[in-house]
Amino acid sequence: MNGAEALLKTLVDAGIEICFANPGTSEMHLVSAIGRSSEVRPILCLFEGVVTGAADGYARMADKPAITLLHLGPGLANGMANLHNAKKAHVPMVNIVGDHAPYHLPHNAPLTSDVTAHAKINSTWVKTSTSADNLAKLGAIAVQQTSVGTGRVATLIAAANHAWEPAEKSYRARRAKILPDVSPEVVSAVAALLRNGKKTAFVLGGHALREDALVFAGRIAAKTGCPLFGETFPTRHQRGVGRVSITRVPYFAEHALGVLGEYEQFILIGAATPVAFFAYPDTPSVLVPPTATVTSLASIDEAVLPALSALADAIGVGAGLEVLQDRVLPDRPSGALTAATIGDTIALLMPDNAIVSDEGITCAAEVFARTAGGARHDWLAITGGAIGQGLPVSFGAAIACPDRKVIALQADGSAMYTVQSLWSMARENADVVIVLLNNDSYAILNIELARLKTGKPSDKTLSMLDIGHPSLNWQSIAAGMNVRASRAHSAEEFHAQFEAAMQTKGPHLIEAVIKQDIAAIFSMEN
Length: 526
What we know:
Blueprint: H1 3-13, E1 18-22, H2 28-35, E2 41-44, H3 48-62, E3 67-71, H4 72-78, H5 80-89, E4 93-99, H6 115-120, E5 125-128, H7 132-146, E6 153-159, H8 160-164, H9 184-193, E7 200-204, H10 211-224, E8 228-230, E9 237-239, E10 247-248, H11 253-260, E11 265-269, E12 293-298, H12 304-314, H13 339-349, E13 354-359, H14 364-370, E14 377-380, H15 390-400, E15 406-411, H16 412-415, H17 421-428, E16 432-438, H18 443-451, H19 459-463, H20 474-480, E17 484-488, H21 491-502, E18 508-513, H22 518-525
Parallel strand pairs: 1-2, 1-3, 3-4, 4-6, 5-6, 7-8, 7-11, 8-10, 11-12, 13-14, 13-15, 15-16, 16-18, 17-18
Antiparallel strand pairs: 9-14
Helix pairs in contact: 1-7, 3-5, 3-15, 9-12, 10-12, 13-14, 13-21, 15-17, 18-22
């Protein structure tokens, strides 16, 4: 074996099946090793941000890592935004980044860079190979590191010569660590809080938003009368008919302060204390009242399900007390195409066990609310706020779950960040229906500009938020990458096109043309 083959065997033995790749010269021996393997499926992406975003979406749905194959420091840097999102999502991911041979580095060739410095920004573990055998050994350690806590991003920097030099053996990764249990003392302390008479709310995140954990949370909420709030941007939220519903903490700080302001105690389960997405003048950063008590039952890296089960036992809650979401069938939408009518169509037509990748930005909250009573589905949000996540995450989710329909709720401006995802979807025939919300604007930035009260915007100011001159032709963009596409201007047109897409396999883009009233935004906010 050479080092590349030893590394690949190590990764295969650790259960790795998928490699999202955008390789270069320094990775050619790794490319060749994958090409000779019958056990790893390589998936080419035309931009590194698609590579890292797809690996994130895959990990969210598979609950295990894929590997990414990236080219040197600049290739890693191109994937940085979606690595940021993956880190915030607490998902497992192994990045393999090629680098120059050590003897070549002192010559400062054009692509020479500090790969380690780049990698440390969003990886919790970073190592560089020192030999061909060490390359394979580090592969085993990297996989182990991704299973620390709920999930971690690990980056292995593979020197080019260590991939082609001979290696003696592959290595076997140790078994994944089991999440630590919450102590009985913590459970007892939280149970006591629930009996002290103070107005209390739960905030759920991470694995607490999975169906099995929500059942126990629902029982506890029904017994105590304490509402269930969920983090604003969840990694994976299992919702819909027959599941326990929660209320998301609102995105806008002033709304969240109003919603959370009446509570005296907050119990965190797999979540952090809610904070504002940005700083605003005269607005607190922390969204819970300063006088409130905040207690954690289980952190993101602790075993949430046993903790909730133990808490239910501690307060004497039995099975069947939880309130489950009823099926809600809105009327077939008609008239203007809006976030509300889009949400109603999705709620009516989404198949059971669908996956929604949400980068709908300004439309997302309304669609989220309208689909609460839809068929069972998983909702994947933009965890780190770095736009350009929605398309690749939906693609990675489709690779992880090829038997499930994926719906990408996608804003137009952020779609352009990783538009290359469409090509990979077509190449792999990924079963993704993209609802492309086209308002010819960075609409969220118009809203944020108004909320920051910077004064009446000039035409020059608004030009920096306007992507409608010229307008993007999404039917042509999709067709250029061999993705079927259609355009809807009314609720009736969208409903018919979405219904057809739900019955067809493979990628399909529906351009939903939505008008935004800029003048009304600034009139409302100012």
